[in-house]
Design brief:
The structure holds 2 protein chains of 2 kinds. Chain A is an alpha/beta fold. In chain A, 32% of the residues lie in helices and 17% in strands. Among the domains of chain A are: 155 residues, Aconitase, domain 3 (2-Layer Sandwich); 166 residues, Aconitase, domain 3, CATH 3.30.499.10. Chain A is globular and about 55 Å long. Chain B is α/β, with parallel strands linked by helices. The chains are: A alpha/beta, B alpha/beta. Chains A and B meet through helix 2, helix 3, helix 5, strand 8 and helix 10 of A and strand 2, helix 3, helix 5, helix 6 and helix 7 of B.
Chain lengths: 468, 208
């Protein structure tokens, strides 16, 4: 390796997965782990059936039920949803694919369960028919979302023919102030570079602020790379990564562990390697962020006000702001802290892990959810739920008047039965505030877990410090 | 897939930036297990507004969608591409596309034509003046053609060839079987596998 030109981490990950390369063709890339779920796989399995193809490596695919499951029961009432779930079960049965279905002790959101089991390791190439597959880049894995045609391609060949993306370095300088976290970090970046700022790139997150993050926080950060438009997000593996992985059910053991760690230590961007683009962001002045519009780049500090469309110099941004404010039913100049919230959603592949529940529970301990507000707490997996119950967090949530629910994607995406109704307004720890995302006419404000918890208590957008 | 070489059709302007795939197909339509029949899902929420541009009879036959900046961002749902195709569209002309959408589109023979904002604006103005405004997307020459004017566009070379010849991309990869096997022999032994039953010692048996 020492004689080779300096390379970025993304380039190293890419190169080690190239099965075949030829001029005028995209690289043929090997996929180490394919995660799948009920919502984007049925048509892929249909394709296999129609062409008479088999699944090449069934033991490299794991299926979960997450998008279209209820979180108040393990019985699916809706016949359309039931058919989708049954279809996944039948397909997994036919092709010999491991499935953790509703009610299984390992069930949960794909992007929460995979890492928990130690299935996602540094240096791997991971795909899933879900855009938030970028989550797994937190381990120094090349992980990206794919459509259903590509799901079929991976099932049949364990490969994808794909062109190499460009590389972007995001250097977070300074130290994160208390009260802020990974969610604020990524919202700040998206506000800075825009919802298309990362298009065509794999982002590597760098800097002391990233090194200081836990694995779960790194997952939150990488998770929303797609909201910056990026194909994938990455954090180079380090001692934090190795400590997280050690002892997990699918992590290497014994001599394998030592060999793996020795390899993982080489997975870093070489000194002198060039990125196609570099963005620097000083995080030392960061405060909790909240979105006011209908795309994740439309975010401001919670201490701020709803912006006036006229304040945008770019005419397209001005038009987008006007439309967003109309949809969100917000008046320019209104302090964000005065915006009342009907429903708070704590969960999702962005913020549904144990650390998210812990920090939210700390805010809620000894307090009550406002009478005008509903708080749903949806753990990202059964394992997260059980861990929380062992720590007594469920009691904290229930005593505060929150709903303690079963794992799933829940209210993140308006697909299963957990949805906002009518013009309800939410503060949500999920990842998308698009029009209609959480319900046909619903309004979403994206926030961090601590802001979600404080908002539930105050009944309007708030940070823990506001609760007195 | 049928070969796709060039397409000439009526254009319609949808003047919005950052159109995400949740707008193209709301999640509730993604419960379906089929790959076609999504015409009713296309822009389902926006179509409830009577004046929405795609509701206007004059644009009923449109096959080329002109959209703003950054089209098809967000969710990886390929349903968005299926719905556009079921809605009669063969190409989308926009300034920038979501990476996953762009790939899904090429995989399904929906051509993403990336153009500078000024070009899209010009075309939109013409489509709004004259609903019968027609343009040609030439995948062979990689040009967008309107009357005597034309603009180049880019497409991934391999994906373009597959569309031009109507070839199956999975078949092409399967022809590399020996290379894939050789790669598999080189993979480190510690890499994880999830065979059926690997999580069974943890199963509660309560699954329905």
């Amino acid at each position: 390796m020492t004689t080779e030109a300096p390379a970025t981490l993304a380039e190293k990950l890419w190169e080690t997965h190239v099965v075949h390369r030829a001029d005028g063709e995209p690289d043929l890339l090997y996929i180490d782990l394919h995660l799948t779920h009920e919502a984007t796989s049925p048509q892929a399995f249909d394709g296999l059936r129609l062409t008479g193809r088999a699944v090449r490596r069934p033991e490299l695919t794991l299926a979960l039920e997450d998008h279209n499951v209820p979180t108040d029961s393990t019985v699916i009432e809706d016949p359309v949803s039931r058919l989708q779930i049954d279809t996944l079960r039948r397909n997994c049965e036919t092709h010999g694919i491991e499935l953790y279905q509703l009610g299984h002790r390992r069930q949960g959101i794909v992007h929460v369960v995979g890492p928990q089991l130690g299935l996602v390791q540094p240096g791997m190439a991971v795909v899933c028919g879900d855009s938030h597959t970028s989550t797994h880049g937190a381990f120094g894995a090349l992980a990206f979302g794919i459509g259903t045609s590509d799901v079929e391609h991976v099932l049949a060949t364990q490969c994808l023919a794909i062109s190499r993306p460009r590389t972007m370095a995001v250097e977070f300088t300074g130290e994160l102030p208390p009260g802020t976290g990974a969610k604020d970090l990524i919202l700040a970046l998206i506000a800075e570079i825009g919802a298309n700022g990362g298009q065509g790139y794999v982002i590597e997150y760098r800097g002391a602020a990233v090194r200081a993050l836990s694995m779960e926080a790194r997952m939150t950060l990488c998770n929303m790379s797609i909201e910056a438009g990026a194909r994938a997000g990455l954090v180079a593996p380090d001692e934090t990564t190795f400590a997280y992985l050690k002892g997990r059910p699918h992590a290497p053991q014994g001599a394998d562990w030592d060999a793996a760690v020795a390899h993982w230590r080489t997975l870093r961007t070489d000194d002198g390697a060039a990125f196609d683009r570099t963005v620097e962001l000083d995080v030392s002045g960061l405060s909790p962020l909240v979105t006011w519009g209908t795309n994740p780049s439309q975010a401001v500090p919670l201490s701020g006000r709803v912006p006036a469309p006229a304040s945008f110099t770019d005419p397209a941004e001005r038009v987008a702001a006007e439309r967003a404010l109309q949809y969100m039913d917000l008046t320019p100049g209104t302090p964000l802290r005065e915006v009342p919230i009907d429903v708070v959603f704590l969960g999702s592949c962005t913020n549904g892990r144990i650390e998210d529940l812990r920090v939210a529970a700390e805010v809620l301990r000894g307090r009550r959810v406002a009478g005008t507000t509903r708080l749903l707490v949806v753990p990202g997996s059964v394992q997260v739920r059980e861990q929380a119950e062992q720590e007594g967090l469920d009691r904290v949530f229930l005593d505060a008047g929150a709903e303690w629910r079963l794992p799933g994607c829940s209210m993140c995406l308006g697909m299963n039965t957990d949805r906002l109704t009518g013009p309800q307004r939410s503060a949500s720890t999920s990842n998308r505030n698009y029009e209609g995302r959480q319900g046909a006419t619903a309004r979403t404000h994206l926030v961090s877990p601590v802001v979600a918890a404080a908002t539930a208590v105050a009944g309007r957008l708030s940070a823990p410090a506001d609760l007195g | 897939m049928e070969p796709l070489i060039t397409h000439t059709g009526q254009a319609v302007a949808l003047r919005r930036d950052d159109i995400d795939t949740d707008q193209i197909v709301p999640a509730e339509y993604c419960k379906r297990v089929v790959k076609s029949g999504y015409a009713d899902a296309l822009f389902a929420r926006w179509r409830q507004e009577p004046d929405f541009v795609l509701n206007r009879p004059a644009h009923a036959g449109a096959t080329v969608l002109l959209a703003g900046r950054n089209f098809g961002i967000g969710s990886s749902r390929e349903h968005a591409v299926w719905a556009l195709k079921d809605g009669g569209f063969v190409a989308v002309v926009a300034s920038g596309f979501g990476d996953i959408f762009r790939r899904n589109a090429m995989n399904n023979g929906l051509i993403p034509v990336d153009q500078p904002v000024e070009v899209v604006q010009e075309l939109m103005a013409e489509a709004e003046r004259d609903p019968s405004f027609t343009l040609t997307v030439d995948l062979q020459q990689l040009r967008l053609v309107v009357g005597g004017r034309s603009w180049p566009f880019e497409a991934e070379q391999r994906a373009r060839e597959l569309l031009l010849q109507g070839l199956d991309t999975i078949e092409l990869t399967m022809r590399r079987g020996e290379l894939i096997e050789a790669y598999e022999r080189r993979r480190p032994s510690w890499l994880p596998t999830v065979p059926v039953g690997s999580g069974s010692e943890h199963a509660t048996g309560g699954a329905r």
